[in-house]
Amino acid sequence: MITIEREGGVATIAMNRPDKRNALNPELVSDLKRAFEELGADNAVRVIVLRGYGPAFCAGADLAYLQQITQNSAQENLADSTRLMQMMQGIVECPKPVIAMVHGPAIAGGCGLATVCDLVIAGRTNAVFGYSEVKIGFIPAIVMVYLLRKVGDTQARRLVLTAQNLSADEAASIGLATMVVDDDRLEHETMELARLIARNSASAMALSKEMLTALQGMSLQAGLRYAAAMNAFTRQTDDCKAGIARFLSPSP
Q1: Counting CB atoms within 10 angstroms of each CB, which of 60, 100, 137, 186 has the fewest?
Q2: CATH classification of 2-198, choosing from 3.30.390.10, 3.90.226.10, 3.30.530.20, 3.40.50.720?
C-alpha cells in the first residue's frame, strides 16, 4: 500500500491507494509505521518525504474501516487506536526530518498525518486541510495532542469544532502548513527543499528534532537545564567536531 523511492539521501514514501484516495486502513497504518522505522534507522537516509498518489494526499479513514470499528469490541478498538497512535508518534520520533508534500485534500486522519510531519509543503490551488471527524460523531483524539502543540488552542478549537476545511494559504497562515507553492511546482520545490536538508548533519538534525519535541512539555528552568546538557553533549559528537574543523580550516 506504499512505495518507497530513494535519491541520494532523500527517501520518498508514497501512499499508493489512489482509488481509495489513500484512505487509512490497518494495512496502510502498519506499512507507514514499518517504513518510518526502517528509514529512520537507515544511515544513508537524511530526510523523508511523505506523499500520496492520485487526487488526494489522504482522505482520512477508509469507509470499510469505519464500518469495522463500529463492530469492534472495546479492547479491539483500543488496540487499533494504539497502533494508529504509535504510527503517528513514530513520525514525530523519527530521527530524520519528515516533509509532507500535500498536493490535494488532507482530511481527518490525512490532515493528522500532515500535522505530525516536521514540514508541510502544500499546493496552492488543490491542497485542502480539515478535521471533519465531528461531522460523523467521531473526534480527532490522537491528533489533537499534536495539533494543540502545532497551532495553539485558539486555532485547534476552530479546526476541530467547526470541521471546516482550510485552503493551503489559510493553513499556512495558522502554522499548519510550512510553505505554499504553485501546484505545478510542488514536487520540484519539495524535492529541492529535501535535498537542501539532506546536506545537513544527520546527528545534529536528529538531536534538534528530539529537543523540539521534548521542550514543549518543560518549564523554562527545566528546558534551560536540558538545553545546556544537550549543548555540551553535541560538542562531543563526531559531526560537530568535523564541522568545526572544516569551518576553522576552509579549503582554499
Answers
A1: 137
A2: 3.90.226.10
